[in-house]
Design goal:
10 helices; binds FE2/S2 (inorganic) cluster; eight-stranded antiparallel β-sheet; five-stranded mixed β-sheet; 387 residues
Length: 387
């Protein structure tokens, strides 16, 4: 008789900072952050409701932002900083919220409360004194079966009343896009701030650079349409997505977008599903998209950021884009290869051509994933013309 033994599950080491403490553990690829927190660290204040990213009960702060820990893999969070509800024990703002939740009957069974409090703290810290309607909008990702939300909203209103924001909304620019610092440095705070684009900031070199271990691709693409039209088109996320080969949006919830990006590299086909945050700065006509996605087929994840800025260029527009990314999992070996760099460059160029077509009322090319032949051609062309 043959005895079939179960295939051993591969374990991978993950290192995190949780509530200020460095933590290392071996985890299975499928372990999500909430299970890791609850079962490995016994931090059971993080509750699990739907385990599908819907109810918000599992919300923790991941690298400074609220995140549903049931849809984040522990492996993807390697190197990140996590604060659970237990990590706010000595936090004055959280103490004020806890007191207000009690005073305003903001909880009954308490199941949603840890996630509600983590989200509420972010609302107050990020936005300061906000009207009820905005609080309700911001809380829309946290479900409560008991209270009817009235007490929860009243508690948050009571705490945020008269407060100024204590932390910046997502920074528009980071060190991965050197133009940021140089442009911001040229912006005085008063009258000249009305015409920030009049200054001629120094521009970062185009091409690939490695910063903090991540490739960053900077490109400047000239479009024949006006900066006003480009800026307006970039505000339409569905339109923008239709211009990005292989991309699709599932939901848009304020600044948060969920969707999928399909990529085909010869025999390798990946579909990264995930969530991102989109911010825009009207004054500097620049924006930022950051997000993470996972391909369940290859157990690979991508984490990326795109910064863009719209500049006038003669009668047309110069669209400046800096893309940075980090691949983990089985596809990580391709992360810095020329093929992936060519993919990023080709995505950008296809996107720009499609955006211009969209603005001019033409139909963008079909939004299908880029194939390996297009990439190989891009590589050959880059070598031939040293681009
Ligand atoms: S348990 Fe994570 S969103 Fe519901
Ligand atoms: S207090 Fe029971 S689910 Fe919110």
């Amino acid at each position: 008789m043959t005895v079939v033994l179960p295939t051993p599950v591969s374990l991978t080491q993950v290192t995190l900072t949780v509530n200020g403490r460095a933590v290392q553990a071996l985890v299975e690829p499928r372990t999500h952050l909430a299970d890791f927190l609850r079962e490995h660290l016994h931090l059971t204040g993080t509750h699990l409701g739907c385990e599908q990213g819907v109810c918000g009960a599992c919300t923790v702060v991941l690298d400074g932002k609220p995140q549903r820990s049931c849809i984040a893999y522990a492996l993807d969070c390697d190197g990140s900083t996590v604060t659970t509800i237990e990590g706010f024990d000595d936090d004055a703002l959280m103490e004020a919220l806890r007191t207000a939740f009690s005073a305003h009957h903001g909880l009954q069974c308490g199941f949603c409360t840890p996630g509600m409090l983590v989200t509420a703290r972010d609302i107050v810290a990020r936005l300061g004194d906000v009207p009820e309607a905005r609080i309700r909008e911001e809380l829309s990702g946290n479900l409560c079966r008991c209270t009817g939300y009235v007490g929860i909203v009243a508690a948050i209103r009571a705490v945020c009343a008269g407060r100024l924001p204590t932390k910046a909304i997502a920074p528009m620019r980071t060190s991965t896009m050197p133009v940021a610092a140089s442009q911001q440095a040229t912006l005085p705070s008063t009258a000249a701030a009305q015409t920030p684009r009049a200054a001629a900031p120094s521009k970062p070199p185009t091409g690939i650079a490695i910063a903090d271990g991540r490739p960053t691709l900077t490109e400047r693409i000239t479009l024949t349409v006006s900066p006003d039209a480009v800026w307006a088109a970039l505000a339409d996320l569905h339109g923008v997505t239709s211009c990005l080969p292989g991309a699709e949006i599932t939901t848009i919830d304020g600044e948060t977008v969920t969707g999928r990006l399909r990529v085909a590299l010869g025999p390798i086909r990946a579909a990264f599903a995930g969530q991102g945050t989109v911010t825009r700065d009207e004054a500097t006509r620049s924006g930022r998209l950051s997000g993470r996605g996972r391909d369940t087929g290859s157990f690979s994840s991508v984490e990326g950021e795109a910064h863009y800025a719209v500049h006038p260029a003669g009668a047309g527009t110069e669209l400046e884009v800096a893309l940075s990314w980090r691949l983990t999992g089985s596809l990580a070996q391709f992360g810095r290869t020329e093929l992936v760099q060519a993919l990023a460059r080709q995505l950008l160029r296809s996107f720009s051509a499609n955006l211009e077509a969209l603005i001019q009322g033409r139909t963008p090319a079909a939004a299908r994933p880029l194939g390996v032949f297009a990439l190989l051609w891009a590589l050959i062309r880059a070598r031939l013309f040293r681009r």
